[in-house]
Amino acid sequence: MSKSQAMSPSVMVGFIGGGNMAQSIIKGLLREDVLKPEQFYVSAPSDRNLNKIKELGIKVTNNNRDVATKSNVLFLACKPYHMVAVMEEIRESVEDEQLVVPISVGTKVELFEQGLPSCHIIRVMPSLPNEVAAGIAMHTKSIRATAKDVDIVEALFKPLGCCEPVQENLLDVTAQLGGAACAWNSIIIEALADGAVKMGLPRVLANKLAPYSLLGTAKLIIETGVHPAQIKDNVTSPGGTTICGVHVMEQRGVRGAMMDAMEGAVLKAREISKNK
Ligand SMILES: NC(=O)c1ccc[n+]([C@@H]2O[C@H](COP(=O)([O-])OP(=O)(O)OC[C@H]3O[C@@H](n4cnc5c(N)ncnc54)[C@H](OP(=O)(O)O)[C@@H]3O)[C@@H](O)[C@H]2O)c1
């Protein structure tokens, strides 16, 4: 949603792991013209995902060390339980002060500082809507990472949505707002469409319009800075239709349900990362 600025053509961005999240970030960066296909280099053990990445004109390999050696910015985009082994594998291939960006859920900056002690680590918690430049990608830096490293990470992610620093202990909350909330918002969109169908709108039209109701409201809030409560007040005329719907939502506890969903997801994420 913010304006993108192409990075220097000499910047090479590597991804170790080329699955769903890596592909979302890559597609977002291509879509926003931040990087060209020749500025990426991606590795994974099998060709399952690499074949799809190759179709984007991007160089791929099964050799993690080669990607580590040839990248200025190195994303670690495999699953959390592969991270320790991957770091051992590439330790001799990274340069001193190389910028490394792990994106795994529930793995602390400390793990990467220990695994790659010569590198500058900035942990980013991205989200799939980064692919369409409307995602959340908050970040936390290691002690050794510099303001210049932060600038690079923000130059990559600001064009893909919201990207700001946050304390590491809050990354699991922002991850749920970016990731799990995609599922919750989809349920709300589907339910709005179902309601519209119930009241006579054809299914195809209902499914087409329902996402716009969330998108439009979100854009208004982001672009005008108006508080959500103010928007609700602005569209609620005395004795009108909207307040009848608001009354039903309050009776059914929609606010409490959303807060409970967030609490449940964050507590579960904390439990999972404690047991790792
Ligand atoms: N998906 C999300 O919404 C989301 C959001 C925030 C953060 N994350 C984090 O992003 C990371 C990737 O998640 P994902 O959803 O993209 O998973 P995914 O689709 O399963 O992709 C994992 C990738 O890692 C590769 N891989 C496995 N072992 C490897 C190794 N030893 N060396 C190099 N690559 C290896 C896999 O290779 P193959 O292609 O050969 O299978 C695959 O390309 C995870 O740490 C996750 O916590 C995901």
Q: Main beta sheet, described?
A: 7 strands, mixed
Total helical segments: 11
Share of residues in helices: 40-55%
Q: Please give the domain count.
A: 2
| Pattern of helices and strands | EHEHEHEHEHEEEHEHHHHH
Instruction: Tell me which ligands are bound.
Output: NADP nicotinamide-adenine-dinucleotide phosphate
Known CATH architecture of the largest domain: 3-Layer(aba) Sandwich
Radius of gyration: 21 Å
Could you tell me how far the N terminus lies from the C terminus, measured between alpha carbons in angstroms? 35 Å
Structural class: alpha/beta
**Low-pLDDT runs:** none
Question: CATH H level of the largest domain: which superfamily?
Answer: NAD(P)-binding Rossmann-like Domain
Strand line-up across the major sheet: 3-2-1-4-5-6-8
**Based on CA inertia axes, which overall geometry fits?**
elongated
* Overall residue-averaged pLDDT value: 96
CATH class of the largest domain: Alpha Beta
Number of strands: 9
How does this model look, in words?
The structure is a single chain. With 276 residues, this protein is an alpha/beta fold. It is built from 11 helices and 9 strands. It has helices at 20-31, 47-54, 64-70, 83-90, 109-115, 147-157, 171-198, 203-224, 228-234, 241-251, 254-274, and strands spanning 13-16, 40-43, 59-61, 73-76, 99-102, 120-125, 135-136, 138-141, 161-162. The radius of gyration is 21 Å and the shape is elongated.
